[in-house]
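Researcher: Sequence recovery benchmark, item below. Answer with residues only.
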């Protein structure tokens, strides 16, 4: 089970995620997010992370050149896009040496024929970063193939059940490991990673 902890902004919570055994830590660059971080600050946090852990930049609806500039200056390994980007955009990011995650809300995933098998898919509720869950039974008509991550309203108490019913290859969390909006809790991060791993 691949575990990503998203929306980190402090050294303490990055260290907690890494020590708990997370596979990826995420930094949010989407305008308007309560977890927004500057590239320079993300770069300092990413430098604390061992090479075995992915450092993911999260973007929504930003031009690809801006995404590349930010991810490069923060020295990230991976780019997660929540917009309506096309296959060519993901190809461009990979050609520049980044790994990619294509984030789609469940309804867009069901409606859209995806042609690019090189993306890892993240299936989420329609309003990302809001702690909202969706009914994963909705995916039964078209179960995702390959490597995909489940997100949307996960927390330490519900992640094991979500993993058992939807059988994703990984999970991603933001709101569910916060003590208040935008403020991560090291304790909740540790509990989330343990619960996901033991599912
Ligand atoms: O976290 C945000 O503020 C955010 C903003 C814009 C796009 C994505 C964002 N976060 C992503 O949202 C999901 C899960 O969120 P939650 O656990 O339901 O709060 C996850 O993929 C984050 O990377």
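Model:
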């Amino acid at each position: 089970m691949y575990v990503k902890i998203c929306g980190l902004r402090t050294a303490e919570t990055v260290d907690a995620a890494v020590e708990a055994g997370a596979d990826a830590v995420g930094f949010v660059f989407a305008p308007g997010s309560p977890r927004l971080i500057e590239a320079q600050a993300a770069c300092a946090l990413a430098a604390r992370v061992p090479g075995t852990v992915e450092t993911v930049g999260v973007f929504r609806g930003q031009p690809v050149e801006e995404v590349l500039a930010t991810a490069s200056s923060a020295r990230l390994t991976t780019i997660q896009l929540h917009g309506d980007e096309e296959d060519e955009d993901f190809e461009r990011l990979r050609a520049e040496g980044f790994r990619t995650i294509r984030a789609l809300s469940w309804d867009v995933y069901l409606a859209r024929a995806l042609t690019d098998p090189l993306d890892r898919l993240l299936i989420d509720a329609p309003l990302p970063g809001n702690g909202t869950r969706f009914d994963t039974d909705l995916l039964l008509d078209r179960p995702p193939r390959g490597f995909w991550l489940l997100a949307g309203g996960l927390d330490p108490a519900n992640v094991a059940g979500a993993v058992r019913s939807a059988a994703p290859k990984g999970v991603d969390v933001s709101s569910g490991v916060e003590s208040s909006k935008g403020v991560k809790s090291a304790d909740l991060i540790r509990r989330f990673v343990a619960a996901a791993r033991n599912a």
